[in-house]
Design brief:
Blueprint (H helix, E strand, L loop, with lengths): L6 E5 L3 H13 L3 E5 L2 H10 L4 E5 L7 H11 L4 E6 L4 H9 L4 E4 L4 H31 L1 E2 L2 E2 L3 H14 L5 E4 L6 H10 L8 E5 L5 H9 L16 H4 L4 E5 L6 H13 L1 E2 L8 E2 L3 E6 L3 H6 L5 H7 L2 E4 L10 H12 L5 E2 L1 H9 L5 H15 L4 E2 L6 H4 L18 H19 L4 H7 L4 H10 L4
Parallel strand pairs: 1-2, 1-3, 3-4, 4-5, 8-13, 8-14, 9-10, 10-13, 15-16
Antiparallel strand pairs: 6-7, 11-12
Helix pairs in contact: 2-3, 6-7, 10-12, 13-15, 17-18, 18-19
């Protein structure tokens, strides 16, 4: 937004005052709409989007408080400046408490109007830029609601679209709460089957007999309670995809039937005598060690190899700590309309926590914090004690996996964290912060410049 495009609504019942404001603002190259009372102003808000609203407080039909209330409801991004006569300043201050940006006293000076309007529009522009950058950061490191900037997540983002275009069976592995269902949904939504059904079932939540009926359907009279023929998920998903969560919990007797579907696309309903042929893509997921399940005989080896055509492993949250701030930002936007931020100490506490429940646990915690905190900034006082007093592993450093690690980057992150913490403990005094870290002032200052810490 720039001055040439800024759109301003002026609501003032006094004609001379209204005209003065209109002429002044148009001379500043703003687009101006002027109306004579609050009711007309509210109607204008319903028809057009305004960057700024300048409204008198005392007006016929609808006063400035009603305009402010409706503006917050109809156009929450619009800033509101109240005009108040001498003696009603308290009312204007009350309006600011209710969400107005500022107020102007009558009689006012031309330069005063210019200054307040320019500041208001600059604030709106800055707010829009911050929102844009936040969204840009999030969208740069996300895919189908899967969020992360770590090397392993970026590798996942490159892999998913490629795999989605094929019909290959996929086996997603990872701990509970890492987002396996989100990955399965992304695989379907980015595939050529996206316009057909995507059905999901958790194999651990059904007893054996019921799971078979849910997957393959049944014929009337096949068992007690089977009072009509029923199609299963495999039929309903014909042409689309099925997500089999917790596939490691599937009984051996059903594993043979699923293997047949994978091999030739056919199955029989429970109690049925004829084959049904379908075209479905199967995406499976588990938090089990499938190699161990195969070796102990609880999972068929041939089925494992048919499912594991394209293996996708989702790393636990503790192994991608650099993604935690991004996820927190995402959940803050999801659960709260008001912009909130975490203090450095609060953020570090969440980054260092081991997150056994992974992303799901983090999401639940952010929702809980926002529900219980009424502060604009989230501090350590808002973090539950079980997080602050958790038993941490001997080291919070990431494990060295098969793909390796970026040691230099990890060391830089540790160094930056200590620099910021020392500044906070030293109350912003650089010489004190340098002393706390055992550094010379020159060396400390060099490190601040290196990491652009201000």
């Amino acid at each position: 937004m720039n001055n040439l495009k800024a759109n301003i609504l002026v609501i003032e019942d006094e004609k001379s005052m209204r005209e003065v404001l209109r002429i002044l603002l148009e001379e500043e190259d703003y687009r101006v709409t002027s109306v004579t009372n609050g009711l007309e102003g509210i109607e204008a808000l319903k028809k057009e989007l305004f960057d700024l609203i300048i409204t008198d407080i005392k007006m016929p039909k609808a006063d400035g408080f009603e305009v402010l209330s409706m503006a917050k409801e109809i156009s929450p991004a619009s800033l509101v400046i109240m005009i108040t006569a001498f003696g009603t300043t308290e009312a204007a201050i009350d309006a600011m408490k209710q969400g107005a940006y500022d107020y102007i006293n009558k009689p006012f000076k031309i330069d005063e109007i210019r200054l307040i309007v320019n500041k208001a529009l600059e604030k709106k522009k800055l707010s829009e830029e911050v929102s844009f950058l936040r969204e840009k950061v999030l969208t740069s490191f996300r895919l189908e609601n899967i969020i992360g900037k770590s090397a392993r997540m970026q590798e996942l983002f490159r892999l998913i679209p490629r795999v989605a275009q094929s019909n290959s069976t996929v086996l997603i592995t990872g701990e509970s709460g890492t987002g396996k269902e989100l990955v399965s949904a992304a695989l379907h939504n980015l595939s050529l089957r996206k316009d057909r059904n995507f059905l999901t079932i958790n194999c651990a939540t059904f007893p054996e007999g019921l799971l078979e009926s849910e997957l393959f359907g049944h014929m009337k009279g096949a068992f007690t309670g089977a009072v009509y023929n029923k199609a299963g998920l495999c039929e309903a998903a014909d042409g689309g995809s099925i997500f089999l969560d917790e596939i490691g919990e599937m009984p051996l007797s059903l594993q043979a039937k699923l293997l047949r579907v994978l091999e030739n696309g056919t199955f029989r309903r429970v109690g049925g005598t004829s084959d049904i042929t379908v075209d479905i893509r199967i995406i499976a997921a588990t938090n089990k060690d499938m190699a161990t399940a195969v070796s102990t005989g609880t999972f068929r080896e041939d089925l494992f190899y048919r499912l594991n055509v394209v293996p996708i492993n989702i790393p636990p949250l503790r192994d991608r700590k650099e993604d935690i701030p991004l996820l927190i930002e995402h959940f803050l936007n999801k659960f709260s309309a008001n912009s909130k931020a975490f203090s450095h100490d609060a953020m570090r506490a969440l980054i260092n926590y081991p997150w056994k429940g992974n992303v799901r646990e983090l999401e639940n915690l952010i929702e809980r914090i926002l529900l219980l905190s009424d502060q604009e900034s989230i501090s350590l006082d808002d973090i539950p004690q079980e997080i602050l007093t958790a038993d941490y592993p001997a080291t919070n450093l990431p494990d060295i996996g098969d793909e390796g690690i970026n040691l230099e980057k990890i060391i830089e992150e540790i160094e930056k964290d200590y620099l910021v913490t020392a500044l906070e403990k030293g109350k912003g005094i650089k010489t004190e912060a340098a002393r706390l870290l055992g550094l010379s002032f020159r060396s400390f200052r060099h490190r601040l410049q290196k990491y652009n810490i201000k």
